[in-house]
C-alpha cells in the first residue's frame, strides 16, 4: 500500500474515521437521503446477473445495491474496517481487502472478468498520485470484452479532470460518455463533478 494514500492518512491520523464514515452514511439513510444514484446508473448499463467489480467499495453501499438487484458483485477496498462492515451487511457478495494499485484478484481466487467496474465515492482522488495509472490499468485488466469502467469524483480534490482523462488514456481506457452527475447530466466547462464511462481502447 502506498504510504501517501489519502484514505490511509485519514485513518492513521484519526483511527475512528472509518467507523465515522459508516455511521455518517447510516444516518443519511435513516434520514431518507437517496444514496443509490450510482447503483441505479450501473444497474441500467448491464443485463441482469452481470458481473460487477466495485473498486474502492468502502462498506459496500454501491455493491450492496447492485447485489440486491441480482448482480454478481465483488468489492475491493484497502480499509479492513470498511470491508468487515461490507461482509457483515451484504454476505451474498464477495468483499476483498486489497489495494487497487496492486490488485491481483486471481490471488484471491477470482479469475473471471467483469462486465463493468465501478469506482465511485471520490476513490480516485484518495489514491497516491503515482499509483493512479496503475489502478486504472488494473481496472481495465478486469474487463470482459465490451466491458466498461465507470469512475466518478468531484472537483477541487487535487486531481484535475483533464489529468484523470490523460491517466485513463495512458492506462488503455478511452471515454464513451462523460457526465457531470450520476443522473446523466452532460459534462461541460465548469462542471464540479465527473462521471466518466470508459472502455478499453
TrEMBL record:
Coiled coil: none annotated. It comes from the Bacteria. The keyword Transferase applies. Signal peptide: none annotated. GO terms for biological process: methylation. Keywords: Methyltransferase, S-adenosyl-L-methionine, Transferase. Residues 52-147 form the Methyltransferase domain. One of its GO terms (molecular function) is methyltransferase activity. The keyword Protein biosynthesis does not apply. This is Methyltransferase domain-containing protein.
